[in-house]
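Sequence only, no structure available. Ideas?
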Amino acid sequence: MVKLYKNFNINKNHKQSIILIGNFDGVHLGHQKLFKLAQSYKKKYNLKIGVINFDPMPKMFFNRSLTNFRLSSIDQKLVLLNNQGVDFIITKQFDKIFSKTKSINFVKNILSQKLNARFIFVSNNFRFGNKREGDVNLLIQNEKRFNFKVVKPKPLLLKKKIVSSSLIRSYLERGFLKEANKLLNRNWSIEGIVQKGRQIGKKIGFPTCNIDIGDYVLAKPGVYAVKVLRKNNTKYIKGIANLGYRPTFNQKKILLEVHLFNFSGNLYNKYLSVEFLKFIRKEKKFKNVNQLKNQIKNDLSIAKKTK
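Reply:
I predicted one. Tokens follow.
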């Protein structure tokens, strides 16, 4: 099982490893290519693989207005990284003190002294240290001094576009779910706890589970075909979801509401994973509840046919 650390004080058997540094938000195809390469180094040199990532993501720490940004929660990311066959993960809390670390001190005190890294895998645009002063060139200049080797693979290109977390975010924001899922190599999903809502769905004969989307990226508001997993359960339940502000009922807060097909049972306070399968339509305001009900019937027939 993967070993989790909250700081750089790692076990002796994890020192002298292959270290991958980054946010790895979404653990997409580009990241997966990087991990495959790391696996080949692991075999060749008989080393362990470790990941350094930060929470909150530095971008979110410096820009407090970026409230909806993540492709995956920290818990999801740990599961996805574990699936990539890593041996240990360091999730360092990114705070004001740590943000002031000089880049050369990060190399000397952390990568060299604390971790004694053998190989360091980074993307070409990797920046680190106070005011983002450190870059890949700084790492390369210090290879001999600190006895590590920098590996910076070429980014993965699909249809002449670099596969990146920001490209996937922009796809989701524009309702290009199919393209986003392709680059993630899985269905994009939101995990959260079912909360007590205003029972509007129930009143119109359409009960829903309400989930606060937290700091997940805001995909295009609208209606989606979904499938849902309950915690510690392997059986998917198909459903339909509305992600948005519910303009017909003049709501202001963004909410994910999920209606499950052929399911009866109480899901309040239960932890659900909602996988997005198809973008059906964008959110719109209806003149009255009957109009909304008719639209829901159309949406339902599409969602039920979605594989």
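The first helix runs from residue 29 to 45.
Hope that gets you unstuck.
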